[in-house]
Amino acid sequence: MQRTAVVTGAGSGLGRVIGRALLEDGWAVALAGRRPEPLAETAEGFADALAVPTDVADEESVAALFRAAVGAWGRVDLLVNNAGTFGPTGTPDEIEVAAWRAAVDTNLTGSFLCARAAFAVMREQDPQGGRIVNNGSISAHVPRPGSAAYTATKHAITGLTRSISLDGRAYNIACGQIDIGNAATDMTAGIATGARQADGSVRPEPTFDAGHVADAVRYMANLPLDANVQFLTLTATTMPFIGRG
């Protein structure tokens, strides 16, 4: 049976790397993201790739994404909830409320809407069930300075992961979370040259090849549904995470 997946934030960064890795493994993948052109670049060369421009913060846009995936392949076996934005930076009093809400809309509400749609499909399909992998962050554990919006949403993703894991038991739906620190992508390019530390200094931090994230997601995705990686933390070995602050 054809294995089918939906990957959000697939136009660049980790989403592109994960989406292409799944396609290389023989999955049929609906690639979701805001901009059509980068999605087309991710899909290039793969017959089983479906590029679906999507705003994950919009309920109808997410519904259309899952209609497209089910229409193409009849089911959804895997959702990789990857879309996200770092959002506004600054001390809490410096963060504009509108910017806060925009980060919450993308990082948290977007993940919920995609999980909600995937859960509905997985619950009703035959064979029943599937897997949801949420992209948390090491910011689901500890913050960087000036990152209240991003950190709050990523802490919330952990709660969402746990709730889906519990609610999915009756329907053979597994849910896990991957928390990533300093994978080398466009979003983290500045970290390698200088990142603000808890003591106020700015120092370069080590990064690691984003392909290792794809390998970790592959492992999680390829498990049978009676086994689950609940939480997986993958970081650059010498980054300031353990003991941060």
Automatic annotation (TrEMBL):
The keyword Oxidoreductase applies. InterPro entries: NAD(P)-bd_dom_sf, Sc_DH/Rdtase_CS, SDR_fam. The keyword Oxidoreductase applies. Gene3D superfamilies: NAD(P)-binding Rossmann-like Domain. CDD domains: SDR_c. It holds the Pfam family adh_short. It comes from the Bacteria. Keywords: Oxidoreductase. One of its GO terms (molecular function) is oxidoreductase activity. Belongs to the short-chain dehydrogenases/reductases (SDR) family. PANTHER family: 5-KETO-D-GLUCONATE 5-REDUCTASE, BLR5618 PROTEIN. This is 3-oxoacyl-ACP reductase. The lineage of its organism: Bacteria, Bacillati, Actinomycetota, Actinomycetes, Pseudonocardiales.
